[in-house]
Design goal:
about 160 residues; 6-stranded antiparallel beta sheet; 2 helices; single chain; alpha+beta
Length: about 160
C-alpha cells in the first residue's frame, strides 16, 4: 500500500488522453493493489471545468462542486485504476471509456473550501490482452460527510477502440 511516486504520477498525467486541466485529482494518497482501492484528495477551491462558470447566489444557489465535475472525478479515478493496477499505459495505445453509470447518488452539496477525500474500489474486473472491463464503487467525503456514492463501469482497450465499426 503506497502512493505513486511524483515521477510516476507525472508520467500518468503527461500521457493521459486529456489535457492536464481535465485531471482533477490533486493528490493520490494511497494505491492498494491487494484491495484494488485508491485513496486520493481534491482541492475544492481549484478551477473546475463546470463549476468555474457558476454565478452563485449564497441564498439560493451557492457555488459548489457541480455534478458533472464529480462524475469527471470518477473517470479520473477509474483511469488511475487502469493505469496503476492493470498496466493500461496510454503511451502504449490504451484508451478508456466510461460505459455505464449504474448508480450516482449526490448525497449532499459539495461546498467550495474543504477538500474532498476520494475513495474508489474495484468490485469486478475482467482482463484480456487488449481489453480490461472494470466496475467500481466511488465514495467521496467532505468534512466526514459522505457527499457522493457511485457504482460505475468502464472499458479500456488497446489499439483500435471499435474495430469493424
Amino acid at each position: 500500500m503506497s502512493a505513486p511516486s511524483k515521477l510516476e504520477l507525472e508520467r500518468f498525467v503527461s500521457t493521459f488522453p486529456y489535457s492536464s486541466e481535465a485531471f482533477l485529482v490533486d493528490e493520490v494518497l494511497c494505491i492498494d493493489p491487494a484491495q484494488r482501492e485508491i485513496e486520493a484528495r481534491m482541492d475544492t477551491t481549484r478551477s473546475l471545468p463546470v463549476g468555474r462558470y457558476q454565478v452563485g447566489d449564497p441564498g439560493t444557489h451557492p457555488r459548489h462542486v457541480s455534478g458533472p465535475d464529480l462524475v469527471l472525478l470518477t473517470g479520473n479515478l477509474g483511469c488511475l485504476h487502469a493505469y496503476f493496477l492493470h498496466s493500461c499505459r496510454w503511451e502504449e495505445g490504451w484508451v478508456g471509456f466510461g460505459n455505464r453509470i449504474h448508480r450516482a447518488d449526490f448525497r449532499s452539496l459539495v461546498t467550495i473550501g474543504p477538500p474532498l477525500r476520494l475513495h474508489s474500489k474495484e468490485t469486478k474486473a475482467r482482463e484480456g490482452p487488449k481489453r480490461v472491463v472494470l466496475r467500481y464503487e466511488f465514495r467521496f467525503w467532505q468534512e466526514e460527510r459522505l457527499v457522493y456514492f457511485g457504482d460505475q463501469s468502464a472499458i479500456f482497450v488497446k489499439g483500435r477502440a471499435f474495430e469493424g465499426d
